[in-house]
Amino acid sequence: MEITTSQHEALALARRGMRLDVLFIRPERRNAMSVALNREMRALFAALVDDRSVRLVVLRGAGGWFCSGGDMRERDQSLHDPNADPRVAARERNRLGGELFRAVNHAPQVVVAVVEGAAMGGGFGLACAADITLTRPDAQFAMPEASIGVAPAQIAPYVVRRLGLSQARRLALTAARIDGREAAALGLAHHLCEDDAAIEARLAEIERAVRRCGPGALAGTKRVLNAASLLDDAAMIEFAAEVFADCVTTEEGIEGTRSFLEKRRPAWAGEA
Questions:
Q1: What are phi and psi of 57, to 5 degrees?
Q2: Local mean pLDDT, 10-residue blocks, the chain (272 residues)
Q3: Which Pfam families does this one have (predicted)?
Q4: 3-state SS class at 261
Q5: Which of 13, 43, 163, 239 is the most exposed, fewest CB within 10 Å of its CB?
Q6: pLDDT at residue 161 in the model
Q7: Which residues neighbour 225 within 8 Å (Cβ) at sequence distance 6 or greater?
Q8: Between the CA of residue 224 and those of 122, 154, 241, 244, what are the distances in Å?
Q9: Residues whose CB is less than 8 angstroms from the CB of residue 232 and which lie 6 or more positions away in sequence, other chains included
Q10: Is there a contact between 16 and 52 (Cβ–Cβ < 8 Å)?
Q11: 11-16 and 118-120 as β-strands: parallel, antiparallel, unpaired?
Q12: Are 21 and 60 in contact (CB under 8 A)?
């Protein structure tokens, strides 16, 4: 299958069929979340909102590191910029970080984070916002924000949803560092992968599974799952009914029903 690639300031993209690999390419800074990385990621996920040709997005860091969190050098420079109000600048930078995590969480595609090296701060947040997280056993996870005088403000909702409030409090309030094995035990990561071969095998397995699912159905499923913890029972019943009706009456939904009744693979699944 043909692979289409492109490289930007902070990201390298590789498209192969329904799968898009997104590589953070700031290994000299352990893939810290710079202004450029944030901007390019938000633009990418904005473009993916209406793109059903992509069903799987894989996030990974170059140089054996996933993401070390916010770029501290950029943060320090912005706080000492004589031409800007430091509080206004800090608020806007943090808000844009929140927009990025929201975009990843709400993407209509299946988003997989592959954590190698470390996922710190914002990297921890990305690992929690992703639908599926893979990790190496020796990878390190932490929310070090409190230890450097700030709060894990924008990542907190995703950490709480992934781990529950009790474990989120333990990790955030002590800036504790855990390895991949503990991350998997806590449910932060879904799969432990001992080496590169195991990572590639697991990604291939996930890709095969996602290929069986309709792109519109994936988007609808994520809408329902994201709403489940936010709406009361009555509102959820109505919202879920609307999403279901949207799905089942489309060409994809009709094809899904027919393929089931005719005992064949649906058109979107490709050849066996």
A1: -120, 125
A2: 86 97 95 95 97 97 95 84 88 95 98 98 98 98 96 97 98 98 98 97 98 97 95 96 96 96 94 50
A3: ECH_1 (PF00378)
A4: helix
A5: 43
A6: 96
A7: none
A8: 25, 22, 10, 9
A9: none
A10: no
A11: unpaired
A12: yes
In 108-173 the beta strands, taken as DSSP E runs, fall at 110-115, 118-120, 132-135, 140-142
84: three-class secondary structure by DSSP = coil
Looking up tokens 């699912």, which residue turns up? 213
Surface-to-core class of residue 28, CB atoms within 10 Å of its CB (0-12 exposed, 13-18 middle, 19+ buried)? exposed
Q: Which two tokens stand for residue 59?
A: 């996030």
Residue pair 13/5 in contact (Cβ under 8 Å)? The answer is yes
d(CA 62, CA 26): 7
Within 10 angstroms of residue 118's Cβ, the number of other Cβ atoms is: 23
Q: CA–CA separation, 212 vs 270, rounded Å?
A: 8
Among candidates 223, 190, 246, 220, which has minimal Cα distance to 106?
223
Which pLDDT score is estimated for 272? 43
